[in-house]
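Q: I'm writing up a methods section and want to include an example of the input and output format. Could you take the sequence below and give the corresponding predicted structure tokens, formatted cleanly so I can copy it straight into the document?
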Amino acid sequence: MKSKKNLQSFSILAGIIMTVFLSSCEKDPVTLALHEPIHPTSSQQVTYNLTKVTSGSIDSAKLYEQVNTINSSGIITSTGSDVLLQTWTSPSGDLSHTKSSGHGSNKLVTYRWEITTPDQSKTFEVTYATRPYPVTNMPAPVYCQGDPDDVFDVVFIPDTDITTMSNFYDNCHGAIEEAFFDEPHTRFWRRQYNFYINKQKGTATDYDDIATDGTHQVPSNNANLAFAEGRVLMHENNLRDYASGGLFSTEMQNRGTIMHESGHALYDLADEYGSGVHWEETNYPNNWPTLANAQAAGNNYGSCKSPSDATEMGTSGWYHLCVSNCQMVTSGLTHTEYDCPCKSRITYTVLDNAIN
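A: Here is the clean output for your methods example:
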């Protein structure tokens, strides 16, 4: 886990970053750049997709690719050329390009979309590895955009109960596209995430059976995953999920659970239901220990919240402002959305992570 800056440093630098960021916000159409399969074998074809999330027109687009060769130490031994794959002029819908063949073994592939709209130009650059990944005891990058020190790093770990690994890979892609890049606020910050897949497996246990089964069994290379804020143990069995040993568990198809647990792991958000775990963060909390404190905080979110929104979570003696279906209240198959106090906390941690 990466260390945090002090509040004074954060306040100064966050102000600078936010000013720059707001002056260059993405204008419509908001677009998502993804590839599939998310972790291809050396022989699999790969499709690059650029999907418009909001309405708007694209004047032109270019897709580039560079294929490098790496060794077991992760060192690039052969650098490929930056190749233009396709150009589009005034396309009417989503964009897609499929490579005619696989990339080969021990490859680290970077693709780049360059897009021009009526209001701005924007670039998306993503790096992924082919399978099997040659670097010993390290997770394979499958959707990486930035320096691990500056973005949130999330590692998907397969459980020993998974019978079909192709389903696991598909659900890793789904967790990115249908969870992190679908919830509006995390999609807003989508450039601030790196995603990896771990080859070594772990074993999740049920929270209600810890007394007999023990806590989660971490993968053998768990020490090498310490750089990641989010270590996600994805399983098939129907379990009551929880966090232990530096990772959290989820059924691999549950987009709501992965977003709820990421709220804890990435952003230090507290639960927002009565029987959950409650605390008050020093900066931008989503839980308050008294009604008066929660009511006072209700004035901090513009028209989104008011003091009258402060309510007790069950009979916990803790209070929150978020709506009843905020993502930190719910989990399960489908995700909901983070409400304003949670969004403020997420923005704080994104910026703090970027400047540490």
